[in-house]
Amino acid sequence: MAVYTEIPDEELEAFIASYDVGELLSCKGIAEGVENSNFLIHTGKGAYILTLYEKRVDPADLPFFIGLMQHLSEQGVNCPLPVTDREGRTLRELAGRPAALITFLEGIWIRRPDPGHCAEMGRAMARMHLAAENFGQRRDNALSVTGWRPLFESARAGADTVSAGLGAEIDKELAALEARWPQGLPQGVIHADLFPDNVFFLHDKISGIIDFYFACNDLLAYDIAICLNAWCFEIDISFNITKARAMLRGYNSVRPLEPGEFDALPLLARGAALRFLLTRLYDWHNTADGALVRPKDPGEYLKRLRFHRSVKSATEYGLDRH
Amino acid sequence: MAVYTEIPDEELEAFIASYDVGELLSCKGIAEGVENSNFLIHTGKGAYILTLYEKRVDPADLPFFIGLMQHLSEQGVNCPLPVTDREGRTLRELAGRPAALITFLEGIWIRRPDPGHCAEMGRAMARMHLAAENFGQRRDNALSVTGWRPLFESARAGADTVSAGLGAEIDKELAALEARWPQGLPQGVIHADLFPDNVFFLHDKISGIIDFYFACNDLLAYDIAICLNAWCFEIDISFNITKARAMLRGYNSVRPLEPGEFDALPLLARGAALRFLLTRLYDWHNTADGALVRPKDPGEYLKRLRFHRSVKSATEYGLDRH
């Protein structure tokens, strides 16, 4: 939950007045999102999200994120559309921060997704991958395999305080992933953070996908691997194959997986688990006392990682090889 | 900023469906309010606030708060109206907490009120006091003069760590206030927490007063004393007589102050400053590490208290005695 920046009254009024959205009626800081400050704005013309980009977002990446949302919206993906101000700008500054006004998407994120939600999410992810194919910009994934070792080095000191032997386990896992990370699989723009809180539903259909601030170019199947971790485990971190099967079938029905992608899924899923384990480990030891966001338990991703390491073949995720 | 309780998906759906408000479209935890969990809800019929009452609110007090909002709304005060469900109930339970759905009020709270805002607030407070005159319920103020000493005893140990000699200063102040607290002044229902973040404006007019969860029966002039503290100091805790004059004139134009109320203002303002000093002192030493709400600096209210102690007559607040 996060509102890091207070907006002075006059600045907010003037900011909203620079868009053709009617008069400012209300502005509430919302307790979701970890990276940025988000406000739900009501104006005479409807509801919007105002995002102030905080220090974890590199301003140089913002044109990619904003452009991607515009592109996906144009392609019919239900995602926030950055609003253009009277001077034609989508990326602005407010309260000393880069800022954007984007359309508000109605919908509820599902705390406990069922297989039907997973199937719907799989289809939507595949549609998003296809819709992004002709997006002209590119952004490398700083949190993919080559980025993990430096991240680990910065978080290593605390690893064994989370769990004895964790440092050595990660070291070994990293070496294995670096040696075996797949080459030559289909690439494209991935969301890279498609957790349930970033997917809104209405009447069991997806009404919106939000939070494109980790989007980047990477293996498309790596996005699926992230979702295997994010959607297909129960609260006790037991793997739910029914949800995984539903998600993979949903994805496959829109964009059929290539055999190489299918085969790589267990390794990619280990990588995805390690990626979230590492960032959580880093945050666990680098979150200031009194911070507004509680760091999340890295241990949950260690359990996921160990599960995926035990997987011999992607068929154990519930989908047959084609 | 606060969302303390997560609401399970199905419970939220069923809860909203039990009201005649149309379908649930979205639900965002909002990062305002310290005592309770608040969600901004969009439905087919508009916007609402869903409040889950957390442990600092005594459930036995909820009928008073809910009833007061209903009463004030009926009297034309712009305040949230508790929505009645299909079975005629306004007070419900959700996610194991007492809960209420109330109407959403558009408007912006003013971070830096100017004298015009203070005048408007003074008038609105007086109208609220008059509107509450025939409200049938009663709730004693646990945070008035008789409640301060026990609160101080529970927070005393930490006082001197905030500021050397603070314990002794509070002790002396408490004794003075207990001895001289006024008797016989007009009583009624007061808001008791009318800080700028609880007053919404649109076009420089008040569009709503919210957060009645400290409302109680007490001296009406004590509410004014709270507002002298809450609205009439600058960020550096210098007193702004122009704002105080505007607020007092505004109040007086709707409900003329009695001479005894006028004379008591400096003492009441000391009491109000002490009340917030004590609760902040308590929170300062009793907020768990990792809590979602940062405790506020008690020192700001010590400065206010010392200012009011230096005031010889209420004329120093900018209003002449009548």
Summarize the structure.
Chain A has 9 helices and 10 strands. The first copy, chain A, has 322 residues and is α+β, with helices and mostly antiparallel strands. In chain A, the strands form 3 sheets. In chain A, strands 1-2-3-5-4 form a 5-stranded antiparallel sheet, with helices on one face.
Structure description:
- The structure is a homodimer of 322-residue chains.
- Chain A has 322 residues and is α+β, with helices and mostly antiparallel strands.
- Chain A has two domains: 9-104, Phosphorylase Kinase, domain 1, CATH 3.30.200; 109-317, Aminoglycoside 3'-phosphotransferase, Chain: A, domain 2 (Alpha-Beta Complex).
- The first copy, chain A, has nine helices and ten strands.
- Chain A has helices spanning 9-17, 62-74, 115-131, 145-162, 166-180, 220-231, 241-254, 259-286, 299-310, and strands at 24-29, 37-43, 46-52, 92-94, 97-103, 108-109, 187-190, 199-202, 205-209, 216-219.
- In chain A, strands 1-2-3-5-4 form a five-stranded antiparallel β-sheet, covered by helices on one side. A three-stranded antiparallel β-sheet of chain A has the order 6-8-9, with helices on one face.
- In chain A, strand 8 (199-202) and strand 9 form a beta hairpin.
- In chain A, helix 4 packs antiparallel against helix 5.
- The model of chain A has no long low-confidence stretch (mean pLDDT 93).
- Chains A and B meet through strand 1 of A and strand 1 of B.
CATH topology of the largest domain in chain A: Aminoglycoside 3'-phosphotransferase, Chain: A, domain 2
Biggest sheet descriptor of chain A: 5 strands, antiparallel
- Chain pair forming the biggest interface: A-B, 33 and 33 residues
Kindly, what is the distance between the CA atoms of the first and last residues of chain A, rounded to a whole number of angstroms? 43 Å
Q: Helix coverage percent of residues of chain A?
A: 40-55%
The number of domains of chain A is: 2
CATH-derived architecture of the largest domain in chain A: Alpha-Beta Complex
Oligomeric state of the chains in view: homodimer
Widest beta sheet: strand line-up of chain A: 1-2-3-5-4
Kindly provide the name of the CATH class of the largest domain in chain A.
Answer: Alpha Beta
Query: What percentage of the residues of chain A does DSSP assign to strands (E)?
Result: 15-25%
Q: What form of chain A results from the Cα inertia axes?
A: globular
Q: Roughly what is the average pLDDT of chain A, rounded to an integer? A: 93
- Low-confidence sequence ranges of chain A: none
Supply the number of helical segments of chain A: 9
Give the number of DSSP strands of chain A: 10
Query: What's the gyration radius of chain A in Å?
Result: 20 Å
Overall structural class of chain A, as computed from helix and strand content, comes to alpha+beta
Order of helices and strands of chain A: HEEEHEEEHHHEEEEHHHH
Q: Can you say what the CATH homologous superfamily of the largest domain in chain A is?
A: Aminoglycoside phosphotransferase (APH), C-terminal lobe
